[in-house]
Amino acid sequence: MDALWDTSCITASTNDVKHMTSLGLESNINNAATERVFYYHRGIKNKDIDAPILVLIHGYPQTSFMLVPPLSQFIMRALSLISSLQVIPRLPSHIPLFIPDVPGYGRSSPLSGSHDKRSTGKAILQSLHFLMNSTEKQTIVIAGHDRGARICHRLAVDQASVPHFSIRGAIFIDIVPTSVQWKSFGTAAGSVGSFHWPFLANVEVATHMIGAQGGGVFVQTCLNRWVGKSDIGSFSFKEHDAVKVYSDSFKYESVIRASCDDYRAGAEEDIQLQDEDQKEGRKVDIDVLVLYSADYLGKRYDLQEVWQKWMGKGKLEVEGFGDGVGHFIAEEAPEKIASAIQSFYNQHA
């Protein structure tokens, strides 16, 4: 699959990179073609790290650029800055960050094989390990939204066998377990609301249809369906030409195909492994914070009840966000999300 990767996607437009680096992040844009996974980072290169690295993973149909609003709020909160106007923030040096484009999305190369969550999570952490250039086992806290949260869920279950890293805690943003999500298709409303799941899982059909319509057009359709009803949240979500960043990334067939394969794996390998986990009693043995939209996911599920069934020794916290916030919580309610993430991180640092 990676033979289809058009590396021109890395430097076709770099306005998003300029903005992310203005927040104090570094990127590997000059080496992304050889390293295969594009990422931003802060405070973790070639040095001993005492604090856990906070790994932030985006979802569909986005890129690492989705972290701009919460990162800005996270930085402001950490530095005790309060401003509603222009702020030139700095990331606190004691909180290391690693923010990748998920393999196959954005500037990252598709995997050569399946985009199942175990393989994708492994590729992301391998890139982090390579960046660290250390033989010491490093502690991390993982947080993900949407598909990124599903990667985090897989890593959380596998945490005892994850090489090079000790996972202190995990944050899942606006998801239920994959097998639970598929069961929602037993209702007409569930099928209509999540139409893209079975559609994208048919990789060849979806890739050609999305390409024929225009990847950017399809992305904008999805984003408009899933964003909330709050004017403030919608404005925050669209700041810094974010919609254009995501739409432009889907101009490339490799991104369309890889993202579809992500959903195919969700219908095959991922759900099969989750069913085996439940049968064999493999649960999440680290602490988990679940953040969700009360108007989006909260209307369909009791998140506390759902996730408790998947927990082992770990402690579960659940927090909902109302006031018209939609699926893109991190961008629609960045201050609240930043507060929740920082609080959980501090508890596990």
Summarize the helices and strands and which ones pair or pack.
Layout: H1 15-22, E1 26-27, H2 32-35, E2 39-42, E3 53-57, H3 68-78, E4 97-100, H4 117-132, E5 138-145, H5 147-158, E6 165-173, H6 178-183, H7 188-193, H8 196-201, H9 203-213, H10 215-226, H11 231-238, H12 242-249, H13 253-267, H14 269-280, E7 287-293, H15 303-308, E8 316-321, H16 329-332, H17 334-347
Parallel strand pairs: 3-4, 3-5, 5-6, 6-7, 7-8
Antiparallel strand pairs: 1-2, 2-4
Task: Give me a quick take on this structure.
This protein is α/β, with parallel strands linked by helices and 349 residues long.
Mean pLDDT equals: 91
Helix content, binned percent: 40-55%
Low-pLDDT residue intervals, each spanning 5 or more residues? 79-91
What's the level 1 CATH class? Alpha Beta
Count of discrete alpha- or pi-helical segments spanning 4 or more residues? 17
Strand portion: 5-15%
Strand order of the largest sheet: 1-2-4-3-5-6-7-8
| Major sheet attributes | 8 strands, mixed
The CATH architecture comes to 3-Layer(aba) Sandwich
CATH topology: Rossmann fold
The coarse overall form would be globular
Number of strands: 8
Whole-number total of structural domains: 1
Q: What is the rounded distance between the termini?
A: 38 Å
CATH superfamily (homologous) name = Alpha/Beta hydrolase fold, catalytic domain
N-to-C series of helices and strands: HEHEEHEHEHEHHHHHHHHHEHEHH
Structural class, judged by helices and strands?
Answer: alpha/beta
Mind telling me the C-alpha Rg?
19 Å
Keywords: Hydrolase
GO molecular function, one term: hydrolase activity
InterPro entries: AB_hydrolase_1, AB_hydrolase_fold, Epox_hydrolase-like
Organism: Lachnellula suecica
